[in-house]
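subagent[fold] <- orchestrator: predict structure for attached chain, return C-alpha cells only, no commentary.
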Amino acid sequence: MDILDVLGSSETMRLLSNMRIPLVKKLSLNVATATSSINHGTLESINKILKNSPECRINRLIVNEYTIIIDPTVIEWSRLTLLHIGAPTNMDNALKIIAKLPNLVELMFYNFVPEAIPEEALALDKGSEFHSKLAPLNSTITKLMLGYDALDYSEDSVLAVIKYLSVRLELLSLFGAQVAFDTDMTEFVNGYSDIYPNLTNVTFRLGVTEIL
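subagent[fold] -> orchestrator:
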C-alpha cells in the first residue's frame, strides 16, 4: 500500500491511534468533525498515529473542525509535510506551530486571527532604511495561505503579517491570502529585497478568492 487516506471525526482518529498503521509512503488525515470536547485528546491521537507510521515520508493533516484548537505545547508533528487548520489561530500561536514543524512544506490557516503581532512586524511599514534584519525561521515552508474575517480585522494588520512571514520564511515561493482588494507587493519586495533576497522568489496572490 502506497497511500493511507483517512477522513473522519476526532473519534475516528482516536480509534486509528490504537490500530497498527500499515506501511505506506503517504499518510493523509482529515479531521472533519469533533465528537469530543477533549481538544487535547484529539491532538494526542494524531501524535500517536504519526508515531505509529515512521516509514511515511509524506504526512498530510487537515483539521477542518473549527473547535479543535491546535495547541503547540501538545503537538508532536515534526514529520508533517502539510497542515491545514480550521480553528482560529493568532500570530503568536502560528509562530509557535511553525517552530514545531520543521519539515512542513504547505501551511494553511482558514481562520487566521491577526492579533498578537510582534512590534518588529509592524515596523516593516517604516521602510528598509530603518530596519534591522530579522533572523529566518527554522522552516521548510514553501506555500503559505491565510484566510481571515475582514469584518473583524483591518487589512493593514493582515498585510503586516504577510510582510513579516514572507521575510522570515526563506524557502517560501507562494503566499496567498484573502484580502478585500487585490494587493500589489511590488513596492515592498523592491524595498526589502536587498536585505531579504528570498523575497524575489515569492509569488504573492492576495485577493478576495486567493485562499482557495
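orchestrator: received. Logging for downstream: The mean pLDDT is 90. Strands lie at 3-9, 26-33, 58-63, 82-85, 89-90, 106-109, 112-113, 143-146, 174-178, 203-207.
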